């Protein structure tokens, strides 16, 4: 009885002797059967194996070994952080391997729907590439590519999309009345990326600086930012027009 690897026409064992130099292969015999044992199976071991009995005529039995491998995402070949201008097209790639070949699914990390083909809203997409046309600021965020092939575990990669756009800014209340000696809080809201610089100007001339009189702060969530100015110990001299300025590398804007 001999075992052969059909794909390479290699004799592996004859009777109880191992012919190949592959140390992972052994043969066992008992109860009238001969078994080929292959330890530490690797993807390259997949293929056709034949058990051959040297009778007249010769008898043989063919075995097909399929080696399954969980999916793996190639971080180097796949997209990483993407920075693109609003209105342009974005393409993300997710390269995965495994046996059988894995399928790729895309979705947003926050589970929100996203646009493909400029108009179609979807919750997920499939394929090695995710193509987004005419990206908007709302398109920015974290996307997940998920590779699966029925062999657990599935794997995923997180890709961040940043959309660059010039600031837009608005304020809530137009006019505020305050008692002398009290503190007043003013706010403006802006949308911008990259994260903008914000500052306040009084009566179109005086740029207000942080200190005991003025306290300026900013909070951000994604591409939306809130600038707050607190004016302490109000007096007649503090009356006037307060303008919120927002600037980044893509442009500038202001609101009174």
Automatic annotation (TrEMBL):
Pfam families with a match to the protein in the record: Ig_3
GO CC terms of this entry: extracellular region; neuron projection; plasma membrane
Domain annotation Ig-like: ranges: 1-54, 71-156, 167-256
InterPro entries hit by this protein: Ig-like_dom, Ig-like_dom_sf, Ig-like_fold, Ig_sub, Ig_sub2, Neural/epithelial_adhesion
Chief location category: membrane
SUPFAM superfamilies: Immunoglobulin (SSF48726)
PANTHER family attached to this UniProt entry: CTX-RELATED TYPE I TRANSMEMBRANE PROTEIN (PTHR12231), LACHESIN-LIKE PROTEIN (PTHR12231:SF105)
Protein name: Hemolin
Organism annotation: Pieris brassicae
